Amino acid sequence: MTELQYLISKLVEHKYVYYTRCNSNETTLEDIFFAHPESIKLLNTFPTVLVIDSTYKTNDYRMPLFEIVGWTSTKMTYSVGFAFLHFELEDNFTWALTMVKGLLSSKDNMPEVIVTDMDGALMNAVGTVFPETYTMLCFFHIGKNVGTDCKVHPKPPKDAKVDNKELKKNKVKNREVVEKVVIALRELVESPTEESYASNLLKFKEVCMPFPEFITYVETTVLNLHEKFVRAWTNKVLHLGCRTTNIVELAHGVLKKYLRSSVGDLASCWDEINKMLVVQFGEIQGSFGRNKTVLNTNTKTSR
Question: How many folded domains does the chain comprise?
Fold first, then answer.
């Protein structure tokens, strides 16, 4: 068997739900999505929050592995499904998310919140497939991006003579200003009300006042999406405390330990993913048992 034939045979053997998509000429398979039957049960039991982060390449074809992660009532992550995608484009993300939507048992069981980073193609795909779902942006990534892009001191021309002592001073000042900007942005993000947001926005602009180009940049790329990450708006939806993509990054970390190498074929990648899922489901079931024991103990104590 070819590795693709092996992969599909294993998906069938283990009763995975899977979908494939060929290119426009229907000659080459470009995308494949698969989900474990236990993952589908968990998705329909805990569909409230889904978290999606940027993909990464884990195989010798350098195909991105797209992972969608959910959140249980015992605060544990579970892998909803995986897709090997030919490209990281809006069309590929839309197809994969449409496959996820098809796993849900009814229209009344849609996610309340989907958390993503600021990948424009992914954000557009989420809006297309889940138009009724609140799309939340990871505020950690927003703060990191703004801090990175806060170029408050332009670099001197290559031919310019630079005083190293003066340059060192500028670097210190640069760092201090960046820290002030990041702190002001954090206060802005954590604004509990729309009124406090308006007040903190003025403070943020005051800090950035010497850098009008930077203010324009932040306003047009970040603050125009404030309803998707500022607490005054995110607190209006049930997000179960998931306001960042950190939980999916932790899940990625666990998966990478199983994959170990980024040059394996698709079949060996699936083998490791399946091993990880078996362990994951066991841990989740254990958390349900512990939670039930604590609940029963507390009930008896209250009596």
Answer: 2
